[in-house]
Amino acid sequence: MSENRYLTFALGKGRLANKTMDLLESIGITCEEMKDKDSRKLIFVNEEYKLKFFLAKGPDVPTYVEYGAADIGVVGKDTIMEENRNVYEVLDLGFGKCRMCVCGPAENAELLKHHERIRVASKYPGIARDYFHNKKYQTVDIIKLNGSVELGPIVGLSDVIVDIVETGSTLKENGLQILEEICPLSARVIVNPVSLQIENDRIKNIITKLREKLEEK
Ligand code: PRP
Questions:
Q1: Are 82 and 162 in contact (CB under 8 A)?
Q2: Which helix (H) or strand (E) holds 182?
Q3: What is the domain count for the chain?
Q4: Which atom of ligand 1 is nearest to the CA of 173?
Q5: pTM of the model
Q6: Which residue's CA is the nearest one to ligand 1's atom 5?
């Protein structure tokens, strides 16, 4: 492919983006512009290496990558599973580690055990549906929330929640606990399938360097 084509990265905003930039910097890919914390700029360019970076809301990252607006994306496994886009997941970056779990008050473990028709609140309705319907063969009603999901069982909206657990302190402080574990999560690199063909050398080179760097740690 032409030397002049920019390789574009879409990064999920927030902690993940900062860690990703640190990692990229450690393999020699830097973007000075992005370090200005006060900037409201959304897209950053590294002219020397013909790279572009932009920050997007996490759930939008797989969308940009699927449509080829970004060649490479970095986002949590939770988002990749929920969005279910046509992208290749090529590398586990190992940071942002947490777990997707079914949580609720201890006594509601019984409802899960007996496959009762329960209400499940989640920011991840796709993951919740897939888990209950396809893995547990349990019919449940899924209620989509946009945050502070722990409220669900507390205020009587739902019996359980499907949510991310990192340290477990949010659950603990709200009298909830992990009832079932769905899967481990962490930050992943995703690639557009067409980009992987037309920019195979450049993308492979970056992924290999990242993998080697992670193995050193
Ligand atoms: C996430 C998640 C839990 C919490 C888990 O929420 O949805 O609420 O973090 O972390 P912990 O196990 O370390 O307590 P986030 O802070 O992203 O906000 P949200 O509830 O608005 O989604």
A1: no
A2: strand 177-185
A3: 2
A4: 14
A5: 0.93
A6: 165
